[in-house]
Specification:
There is one protein chain. With 150 residues, this protein is α/β, with parallel strands linked by helices. It contains five helices and five strands. Strands 2-1-3-4-5 form a five-stranded parallel sheet, sandwiched between helices. Helix 2 (31-45) packs parallel to helix 5 (133-147) and helix 3 runs parallel beside helix 4 (86-93). The longest helix has 15 residues, at 31-45.
Amino acid sequence: MAERPLIYVLNGPNLNLLGQREPELYGRATLDDVEALCAERADQCGVAIDFRQTNHEGELVTWVQEARVMAQGIVINPAGFTTTSIALMDALLACDMPVIEVHITNIHRREEFRQHSYVSKAASGVIAGLGVTGYALAIEALSELLEAGE
C-alpha cells in the first residue's frame, strides 16, 4: 500500500483558546474538535495530517520550513500572524508546495487591520468565514491539488 501524502495543518496564536475566546465570533468548537474534524476528512481524502498549534511566530516559521522536507502541502490558519508576519510569508513562499490559508471568520467583514493577509501572497487558495468547516474544505481542496499534481 502506498504511503499517504502528508499535510501539515498549522495553527497560529490564540487558537488554543477556541471554544472559550469570543465564541460569538469563533464558535464553540475547541481546537481538539478541529483536529478530530481534520483527521476524519483527511482519512476520507486518503491523506495524513500533522496537526499543530503555537503561539510563537518563530516556531510557526520553523514548522513551515520543516514541511518543505516532510510534507506535500500545508493548511494554515495563521491567526494574528496573518496581518503581521512577513517572515511567515517568506517561509511559505519558499515551500514550493500547495498552501491553503484558512480563517474561521470572514476577515474581510472584520476590522480594517484584519483585512490584509501577508500569507495570502503564498497561498494557493484562501477559505474564510465558514467556521471550522473551512479546515475540512481546505484538506479536501489540498488533497485534490496533490492528486492533480499541482
